Amino acid sequence: MIAPRSRFLISRLDAGSSSAFLVYSDVVNWIVLQEGSDLTLIDGGYPGQAADVVESIRHIGGRPEDIRGALLTHAHVDHLGGLVSLSEKYGFDVYMDPVEVAHAKREYLHQAGPGDIVPLAYQPRVLRWLSKVIPLGALSRKPIADAKPFPEPLDLPGAPTPVAAHGHTDGHSAFLVADGAALVSGDALISGHPISKIDGPQFVADCFQHDKATARRTVESFTRLDATVLFPGHGPRHDGSVAAAAQRALELPGR
Ligand SMILES: [Zn+2]
Are strands 182-186 and 229-232 parallel, antiparallel or unpaired? Predict the structure, then answer.
């Protein structure tokens, strides 16, 4: 399914009475879960992608007014940014791992800054990436002021289930969706990135990892999952055993 102007691609996975959609853009992904007319949004792109998030929702026949709540994998600007304005405009709550709440409120910021990126900026792919993401608001530090921890129980359309996936940030979370068939992995396990030289399951570049050892243990835990589809935070949908995808990332050179 190709959206108008091709700023994103939508891929669908049906499970019982609900559907999960991966919305893939060339800089970051987000996920929409649809159950009847009710929606759950997982992540929301860069600040400058909020209108694309709305457009992707309309493209699947939904309305942003029907977002019952949003989930955040982690509080980096490429995942949180669009949710800042969308949650204000449409009045939905944004839930996350309790450890990530203070990060989303910007009580602190664990994110690669210019000092981490400049040493890489001689690479044409890094320059190309910066020239795309800075106009999308990559330098914004706006918080989700009323970020909330997952409620007990977490009862959102599409029945997403959090999977603790710490390391990339201290409170990073993944989610099982589509009755456990798909893992929304955020940046714990990705399938490509504009600054990566390789395709397929992999870790994000070290400069973006807050705690590399914990991030590795998280991917080791993914080798015990039964999911058969990966909806990553960056890169295209990956079909096939998530456990095998995780194993492949662990075996890449330099890991
Ligand atoms: Zn990211």
Answer: parallel
- The residues whose Cβ lies within 5 A of ligand 1, an ion, are 78, 187, 233
Residue 17 Cα, ligand 1 centroid: separation in angstroms? Answer: 30
Judged on CB neighbours under 10 Å (0-12, 13-18, 19+), 177 is buried
- Measured in degrees and rounded to the nearest 5, phi and psi for residue 197 equal -85, -10
CATH of 4-251, one of 3.40.50.2000, 3.40.50.1100, 3.40.50.620, 3.60.15.10: 3.60.15.10
At 119-170, the pLDDT tens digits run 787 889 999 999 999 999 999 999 999 999 999 999 999 999 999 999 999 9
Q: Where are the domains of the chain?
A: 4-251
Distance of CA 80 to CAs 61, 104, 162, Å?
A: 23, 8, 17
